[in-house]
Amino acid sequence: MNITVQSIKFNADQKLIEFIRRKTGKLNQFLDSIIGGECYLRLENVDDESNKVSEIKINIPGSQLFAKGQAKSFEEATDIAVESLRRQINKHKTKTKTQASNHKEILTTEEEEY
After folding, report:
1. What's residue 101's pLDDT?
2. Of 17, 38, 51, 106, which sits 20 to 30 A from 25 (CA to CA)?
3. The whole model's pTM is what?
4. Residue 69: which residues within 8 A CB-CB, separation 6 or more?
5. pLDDT at residue number 109
6. Pairing mode, strands 63-71 and 52-60
7. What are the Cα distances from residue 27, in Å, to 68, 85, 95?
8. For residue 24, what pLDDT is reported?
């Protein structure tokens, strides 16, 4: 999977970019048909220590999944976002399997009528 990392108003370290690519690359274990993705890193203007935000958007056939993580470090924020995407992928797969099995049941029922 090809992922583009963009840091807004700062320069991201190469180690951070590699970390993000490695983490998002693991999503291919759950869904093979991921086309690509984008990751946006930015700093929030808040008094809280957890001001680092990682937003990840991945493209899959027919849809787009988005997750946002906010934590004390970009690594933690990326972990949160990737975990959210993993859950979304599992939900998407379950939904598409259910639709496919319902479609097969309808076809089988219609064939029996003839």
Report:
1. 77
2. 51
3. 0.84
4. 53, 54, 55, 56, 76, 77, 78, 79, 80, 81, 82, 84
5. 56
6. antiparallel
7. 15, 8, 18
8. 95
> Residue 95 to residues 4, 52, 101, 102: CA-CA distances in angstroms?
28, 32, 10, 11
Closest CA to 53 of 33, 72, 27, 26: 72
Q: Residue 33 gets which letter from DSSP?
A: T
Q: What's the maximum distance between 2 C-alpha atoms anywhere in the chain? A: 69
Give the per-residue pLDDT at 49: 85
Query: What angle, rounded to 10 degrees, do the helices at 74-113 and 14-25 form?
Result: 20
How confident is the model at residue 105, as a pLDDT? 63
62 is written with which tokens? 């027919």
Partnered with residue 52 across adjacent β-strands are 43, 71
**Which residues in the chain land under pLDDT 70?**
103-114
Token digits of residue 35: 């086309």
Dist CA 84 CA 87 (whole Å): 5
CB 52, CB 72: distance < 8 Å:
yes
